[in-house]
Write a structure and sequence with these properties.
- A hairpin with a 2-residue loop joins strand 9 and strand 10 (about 400-410).
- The chain contains 14 helices and twelve strands.
- It is an alpha+beta fold and about 475 residues long.
- The protein has helices at about 1-15, 20-70, 75-80, 85-90, 115-120, 170-205, 205-215, 235-285, 290-320, 335-350, 370-385, 415-420, 430-435, 445-455; strands at about 95-100, 105-110, 135-140, 145-155, 160-165, 330-335, 355-360, 365, 390-400, 400-410, 460-465, 470-480.
- The longest helix is centred in the middle third of the chain and has 52 residues, at about 235-285.
Amino acid sequence: MSSKTSLWKRIINYPKQWEISTRLTLMYAAVITILLGCACVASVVGMYYVIYHQAEMEMTISVEIALDKIQDPNFMTQAAQKPHEATEEVLLPGVVLRVLNEDGKVVYDTDKHFASVELLRDNFVMDKMFWMSDKYQLVRLKHFMIYYHEVPMEFKGRNYTLVFSRVITAERPMFAKVQERIVLGAALGILLVVLIVYLGIKRAFRPLRDFIGTAKSIEVSDLSARLEVPPSHDEMTELATTFNRMLDRIEEGFKVQQRFVSDASHELRTPVTVIKGYADMLSRWGSSDAETLEEGIQAIKTEAEDMQELIEKLLFLARADQNRQIVNKVPLELSELVEDVYKKLKVTDTRHTIELLRNEEGYILGDKVIMKELIRIFLENGIKYTPEGGTITIDSHAMPRYMCLEIADNGIGIAPEDQEKIFQRFYRVDSSRTKAAGQPGGTGLGLSIAQWIADNHDIGISMESELDKGTKFILMIPVIEEEV
């Protein structure tokens, strides 16, 4: 049973393996075959109906005229003298009339070579055509189909029977030829239409095959290939345009990834090299020189902390890129966050003056942990690029629908050509202009993380900066109703 089911499934699914153009051609061929087949059947049935109906009409007219003429004494007198002339006046061409007396003998016959009445009566057909009138009988002989109808009449006190007959298959040879021509024409028409449809579909799908060839030629190492956009404005044009845009995004993302990996490798290589160098130094002289031992331990500790910070930032951005960084937004009082970050930073940094100017209350919707990280990043950025003894200020005040948080420093500032790039990952401006002596260089990831946090909290960031005068970051944070 299972083998039969499997075979049946394979048979059903086999057409799915064909090309779309082949399946469409077969579908159109099936539809056209059905339509032409129905048209052919309708044509043949229509012709037969016309012939049968014409014969029936001629029979009906002949019967009606005959019954009407019988009531005319002058006509009957004329018919007795000249029966054949009277018959021509009554009967339409093709209709045969026989008159039977009470004994069933033929007393008048318009066609002595026509099949006998007895033969006709013995070959009545029970399954008549659906369009035939119930008052007529259908006779089927070897080579003929005949309409048959009997009408009783009385003339001069004696009973007679009028027998009307009409051959309806004299045109059969012609019909057979017509049917052959119709079938042959339909077959040729189907083949011609299928061929035209197949060539049309092949031509319509040619750009798609070109797309497939181009897509197969694209390698991860070289994403510069693009699909040729057809001149027409149809689905193929839209597909090519969309695919090329997707390739542009993929290529840009691949370049960013390459740059990210290259920069990350470079950033990690430096602390690893320093740690390895100090480890070698300690293995040689550390056990005998206390000063060397202390210097090596402190250097390794510092580099390890820097490398840990870098790795944590890389992991944060990796989770963010994969939409796996959890953001748990809840109502928060911004002044409490600012106060907390300010107090902790004031304790840890004693080389700068950190001032909290205004810290107005206002409720926002955000993740408490990463909102603190956002504020801390901008403060640490100010500390990093402000010489010792400089000032970093925090100013948080309410505005219509927003809390405006301004973090400013009087440090070395950022050149105008670098201001649009500082939020890029691993981007650091020229150290000869923006890095004070003795200040750490950083990883170039902090502001990238800040940008991601801001984007996920609908926070707008703007910046004012001049070289040797300082930098101000302005954060516009949307507010919500006060928490009840």
